[in-house]
Write a structure and sequence with these properties.
With about 500 residues, the protein is an alpha/beta fold. It folds into three domains: about 5-115, Rossmann fold; about 125-310, Serine Threonine Protein Phosphatase 5, Tetratricopeptide repeat (Alpha Horseshoe), CATH 1.25.40; about 315-495, Orthogonal Bundle (DNA Cyclobutane Dipyrimidine Photolyase, subunit A, domain 3), CATH 1.10.579.10. Helix content is about 50%, strand content about 5%. It contains 21 helices and seven strands. The strands form two sheets. A five-stranded parallel sheet has the order 3-2-1-4-5. The longest helix is centred in the middle third of the chain and has 24 residues, at about 285-310. The protein is globular and about 75 Å long.
Amino acid sequence: MSTMAGTTAWILGDQLSLANPALEGADRVLLVQSTASLRARRYHRQKLQLVLVAMRHFADDLRERGVAVDLVHADSLVAGLQRHRERRRPERVRLLRPSSADGARRLARLPGVEIAPGSLFLSDLEDFGRWADGRRRLVMEHFYRRQRRRLHLLMDGNEPVGGRWNFDAENRRPPPAEVAPPPPYRPRESDHDRAVRGELDRLGVQTWGQDGPRLWPADRAQARRALRRFVDDALPTFGPYQDALVSGQRTLWHSLLSSSLNLGLVSPLECAQAAEAAYREGRAPLASAEGFIRQVIGWREYVWCLYWYRESEWGDANALGAHGPLPGVLEHGETEMRCLRDAVGGLRATAYAHHIERLMLFGNLLLLCGTEPGAALDWFQRAFIDGYPWVMAPNVLGMATWADGGRMMTKPYAASGRYIERMSDHCDGCRYDPGERSGETACPFTTLYWDFLSRNRTTLAANRRMAPVLGNLDRIDETERRRIREQARDLRERFDA
């Protein structure tokens, strides 16, 4: 890294990469631990633990490379910057644009702070804008194929390896009878972990979920080991069962790299290239490698670009007019529904749930209960180890709660208990029957599903993809519809308790 006297690179807690453009030409690095940020939401305890420990490890790494680091504890980010200026008197302060729109607006207004161009993503936002402008509808698959060509991943010349772009149809198998996923990588804690726990306790920060031991990589070396473990042990079987839901299994064959990617500890390109190498060397099947690469360079990059492309729209999105409270069951997990009890318990214990649990259990419940989209978004941002505004706004508002009215997904991801029965083992031994719409043993997801369709029938009638299920709704007699409506109301009150 070249140096220029008097230039400070201000690095935020989710920009912990040596490839951060703000570092170019800097002779000192500023990291600020903001008490106000810690208290902004009732975050999962493990999320705060990870970010603060990762900042300290990044400071250690920089110092080992001979870079001067100023790690400031302050009431706010701005107060930390001011303290650094009083101590070091830098000529310039350079900051990579924050990953959240609110943060970018707020920090860009600070006098004397220069916003460094670039990002830690593979996609250029201006290029995405040119691609998106004028299209009648944005389709992730089209973006993904463009990414594959541009980055030359899983390509044979100009054609996709295997003659197909997408192997998603092979990657939707229900869970196997005997589940034996490999043990995930678990990092060793350091003195920083003990110090951070003590600080959080002394500050009296209100958190949610269980404390450690820390399950997630906090520096680049740990993240690289986690990537190798996934590629060597889990990637070969990741593809077929990536949508499976299995009771008591927290991680299955998933990569568990989202927090490392979002903090900047590993790059999306090196993750995708590692998966491609495993396929090329015969260590992983094509469907598994393609499925993982599609998540990393396709969906993740698409969500990043879409967040900024529609940045002004997310805040007011509420196409279904949903104004219900956040279901309390997502906080405490006390329910006889095996699927939901298991998923909330896992989230409390690890700050993690894989994408199908997020969408088809948590997101589905929020959608069916009519939860106000802003409350749903807030919960996802604070409860998950990898929850940040850019991640969650499109996923929660555009996908899970359909708050954007179909701008991102053509129809709501609403599902009855039948889907959970097909893709999981949760329904075995559960007191609820996913095939019943009403009555004491009816699955709450099924009751809420039919009530959701009934409550939103007028809005959904204009959506051609909803015609088959609305036709099924119309075949339910009025007596049962009334029972469904009353039972759904009772369920929402019970969930809210």
